[in-house]
Specification:
Blueprint: H1 3-28, H2 32-57, H3 62-89, H4 104-111
């Protein structure tokens, strides 16, 4: 096996470990918002490393894999943000251990549309 293939296989293995840790975070975290955060960060990094490792193993696929990497970088954080914002607006509560709710002020302003905004 050539050196580039070995490096690509190692990077792909590291990416799959990040994907595993992300799935473990989905089970272990206390509420929806922490699950989204841990799943998104780990799955984004895991997917990027896996695709990069595959690009090293199969250089002919590099163009297609770069397009996939850019797509993952753009869509993964945006989709998790939209899902968590919609969950917060629909009233899904945070964990008892959560310290701060930055969006609670936004919800109060939506309920009182005629309130003066500071």
């Amino acid at each position: 096996m050539e050196t580039l293939s070995i490096i690509g296989a190692c990077i792909t293995l590291i990416g799959s470990l990040f994907l595993f840790l992300g799935s473990l975070g989905l089970v272990r975290m206390p509420d929806l918002y922490n699950r989204i955060q841990s799943g998104t960060k780990a799955s984004t990094l895991g997917t990027l490393l896996t695709l990069f490792g595959i690009a090293l193993i199969y250089p002919n696929w590099s163009g297609k894999l770069v397009i996939l990497i850019v797509f993952v970088i753009i869509t993964n954080p945006v989709s998790s943000h939209v899902i968590s914002r919609a969950a917060h607006r629909s009233g899904i509560s945070l964990s008892k251990n959560s310290v701060q709710d930055d969006l609670s002020h936004d919800n109060q302003q939506q309920q009182e549309p005629n309130a003066i905004k500071p």
